[in-house]
Amino acid sequence: MNAILNHGSTLTNGPLVIPANQTKTFHAQYSVLQDATIASVLPHAHLLCTSMKALAVTPAGDTIPLIDIPQWDFHWQMNYRFKNLIKVPANSVLHGWATYDNTAFNPNNPNSPPQLVTVGEATTDEMMLFYFGYTGYQSGDENTVVDPNGHQAHLGGCSMAHLEVAEEGDRPNWAPYPMPASDVWHVHPPEDALFLEVVDASGRVAYRGPVPEQIDVRHWQNGLYVARMQTKRGTFAVKWHIQR
Asked: 166 with 105, same domain?
């Protein structure tokens, strides 16, 4: 997965700076050079964010909705996997929007009174990332059913159809530790854990494979990581740091 839409190279109205007592919406876009197949999307932001949305516009002017979370929740971040693979034609443009509320009316604002917030890895900083699981298109991809038992979810206010995630009542009691980690990260997986993927803030995969009890992170770089765990009940994500 790569953060194709992000607060750096693809941001059109940056930099990502949110002054105190203001609400701002940022936009990122990316031109798709060849036919592509999208399997999943994972949006990521912090506490000031209130909504995130991504879509693709084809050369013919058609819109392909990808994800729409009108009530963003920092504590509910996960990899939204489409029920069917999505074809995005060459020369389409991916668009992503994120809105941030840096006022006293935002109950999640970590600063009281509000303060200037810029890009950073701390929870009190902000980010705007849309990770996409994608590959080059092959004929018939759009007819491929990733999960025939997938269903439409309305998780955290997400209005996007064809997402295979678990309902809130099925969320596992997953409490990895320590937070932050320095040498060993204890995954502490639930009994129905199937697969684990860990990516850093740039989208680089640091670990992908069976779910271990712990991971040796002594040689990993300091910074933000997102761990996504697939279980029999769905896919879940947690954010954590390595700090020494």
From this structure: no
Residue with tokens 């007819």: 143
**Residue appearing with tokens 């494979």:** 209
Mean pLDDT over 133-147 rounds to: 82
* Residue 21 within a domain: yes
Strand order of the β-sheet with 63-69 is 22-31, 93-102, 49-57, 63-69
137 and 195 fall within a common domain:
no
What does the pLDDT look like over 40-60, one tens digit per residue?
898 999 999 999 999 999 999
Which domain does 15 fall in, by range? 5-143
User: Which DSSP category does 9 fall into?
Assistant: T
Domain count, the chain: 2
pLDDT of residue 112: 93
Q: Which residues contact 48 (CB under 8 A, 6 or more apart)?
A: 18, 100, 101, 102, 106, 108, 109, 117, 126
**Inside any domain, residue 34:** yes
